């Protein structure tokens, strides 16, 4: 009875959040260009009076547009040429207040189990409510998985809502609306971390250092941390199996490791890095930011190291620099596919939808909310996927180390 009431409450809240989000997105689409998608053609970005206050004050469910036309928004990507001068001059400002915290996330607070075995931290942007819902209810669900206690947080910055031509007061209004929305979401799901920096691609490094500092302070006893994007599918069971024999008090950072990557020197590339910013011919080894796992011990050491490394605009390379400072080599793991599945023999259109691939993987990158739901359903359906080859047997029955 209480459960069904709770479920009804959840559903109602989700409806309200979705509708408000839809209105906000609609308003934003007419307003300034969102920072997290490709720049729009100038012709279309005609100036219009901002529809924001109207949309908020008169929510008309019947007229509410669909929040998403076809798909969830892409994760932050660079938007046009990067202003290195500004970046360098602002680089020393690297401490931003936490606007929404989850101080009890890793405290047992009477709940059985106490400290989490695995903390899942997912980079997200405010507008991506739909993917957060997918993650919450599929692979990112909190609770016990194969005996391990799993907890989850989403990492957000302040959405850059207004274009250059917007009045400050309007921008403030937008920000206030977003903050209210995220506060409601935080009350409902207790998994939102919001920091006061702009949520842009080149600020993902700020997200990285703020998260490491947060986890180190608020989850000091966590055994392992998974950090990744919202557009991934993680096979948490396989991840836990991989972690089971590992000692959380020893160093570990595993993922899709990229070695000998060269900085892009072509000026027109979105990832262009001038030699003045990074002079060496190759980057240190780093784990693809789509998803990687680290031990509690490494979490604390990395939080300390990253606090001392100069900010670098590409977040996963930046983490590689912190690792290098610790003289710690990231461990390549073939089951982390941060660039999606690439198996030459598979038909391209089948790749992402074959649960038999997923069954053996830890992580796949580049999925929409719908993909995540679909894959979860296929993997956890009543019959499970019928795969032609047997699942590789784990060495003995799985047991989480006490
Ligand atoms: C990062 O966030 C800060 C604080 O909101 C902002 O001033 C800065 O422009 C952002 N930097 C980038 C590169 O987006």
From TrEMBL:
EC number: 2.4.1.-
Example of a GO cellular component annotation carried by this entry: Golgi membrane
Uppermost EC category: transferase
Residues in the signal sequence: 1-22
Domain of life: Eukaryota
Keyword Glycosyltransferase among record annotations: yes
Protein name: Hexosyltransferase
Organism for this UniProt entry: Trichechus manatus latirostris (Florida manatee)
Similarity field: Belongs to the glycosyltransferase 31 family.
Keywords, alphabetical: Glycosyltransferase, Golgi apparatus, Membrane, Signal, Signal-anchor, Transferase, Transmembrane, Transmembrane helix
GO molecular-function term, one example from the UniProt record: UDP-glycosyltransferase activity
Main location: Golgi
Keyword Metal-binding assigned: no
UniProt-listed GO biological process terms: poly-N-acetyllactosamine biosynthetic process; protein O-linked glycosylation
Membrane topology term: Single-pass type II membrane protein
Region listing for Disordered, in residue ranges: 31-86
Protein localization: Golgi apparatus membrane
